[in-house]
Every structure is written in C-alpha cells, then in structure tokens.
Amino acid sequence: MARKSLLIHVFAHDEPGLVSAISGRLFDLGLNLGDSSFAVLGTGAEFTAVVEEPVPVGIEEIEQQLRALPELEDGEVRVEQVGIEPEHGPSAEVTHRIVIQGADQPGLIARLSEVFGDYGANIVRLTAERQPFGERAGYLIQVSAWIPEARADACISAVTNTASQLQLFSQWHRT
C-alpha cells in the first residue's frame, strides 16, 4: 500500500519571485518538498510539489498560508492527500533526453508521445513551448524519458523518423 503524500498545486500569474515566495512559505510551515516542478504557461505559472507525510500542519493551514501570499493574489491553490509514493519507481529514471523543434502544427505532442508508448517508454518530463520560427510559429518540445534498454535504439529511430515526417529537427542523447 502506498504511503500518503500531499500534492500541492498552485496556478497564478507569472511574476519574478513566485517560486521563492511559494517554496519559502512551505519551508516556513515545516514542509520538506519532494519532486517539484515549475513552468510558465502563457502569462500564468504552475508550481506542483509532492510532500511526504507526516507534515506538521494541516491541509487547510497550508492552503490558507499560500493564499495569503501577495504573489498568489487571484491564484488557485489546491492541497490534497494522495496515495502515491514520494520516491520514483525504476521507469522514472531518465535514460534519454530528446529535443524536437520546428514549425508548430496541430497534434505534435500526440503523435510524438504515441511513439514512446509503442515502445514501452515512459515520458518522465515533457515541456513544450511556442517560439518564433521564421514567418510561422515554432514549437520546442523537450522530453526526458525512460526507454527500456532492449528497445531504446528502435524507439529513438521511430521518434526521429516521426519528427522528420512532421518536418521537425530532432536530437537526442543518453543520460
């Protein structure tokens, strides 16, 4: 049975000092952050973290303290208990990093992520962002993945071929 953990999720307007404000308040509350992520999404920003229990304060107190931060005015704060292990399993170990970029087009992430699934690979982290690309909108996708060793070469070849068919540039390396 999985230990209980807290999942903390914050979405707010992006501004300098946001990560510092959130992580500082959580530290002040006596919480030790496990896996955490932060991303700018448009003009907003998302912060997510897992905290292993026991914790010295209740969920309501954590939410109230975060909502009181000036940086989170009009932001969304959600803290919930979840039944997940705070440590990674073996398929969360990053074995490959892949960068794909080129002109934006509908379905890029769907098409590329299907390839990983076809080879039993696990996408550990994926970031995607729009960028200027000549006269069109560009897209940059960065994938950190665990790929089973026996299928790694075939998976990378399939990702590279799919990217090429979509007229995208790709590069990768083993970690």
Explain how this protein is built.
It is built from four helices and eight strands, in the order βαββαββαββαβ. It has 175 residues and is of the alpha+beta class. Helix 3 (108-118) runs antiparallel to helix 4 (152-165). The protein has a four-stranded antiparallel sheet with strand order 2-3-1-4, covered by helices on one side. A four-stranded antiparallel sheet has the order 6-7-5-8, covered by helices on one side. The chain is flat, with a radius of gyration of 19 Å. The protein has helices at residues 18-28, 59-67, 108-118, 152-165, and strands at 5-13, 33-41, 44-52, 76-82, 96-103, 122-133, 136-146, 169-174. The model has no long low-confidence stretch (mean pLDDT 92). Helices cover 26% and strands 41% of the residues. The chain starts with a strand and ends with a strand.
Oligomer: single chain
Helix content: 25-40%
CA-based gyration radius: 19 Å
Cα shape: flat
Order the strands across the largest sheet as they lie in space: 2-3-1-4
Sketch the topology as an H/E string, one letter per element: EHEEHEEHEEHE
Quick structural overview:
With 175 residues, this protein is of the alpha+beta class.
Helix-strand layout with pairing:
Layout: E1 5-13, H1 18-28, E2 33-41, E3 44-52, H2 59-67, E4 76-82, E5 96-103, H3 108-118, E6 122-133, E7 136-146, H4 152-165, E8 169-174
Antiparallel strand pairs: 1-3, 1-4, 2-3, 5-7, 5-8, 6-7
Helix pairs in contact: 3-4
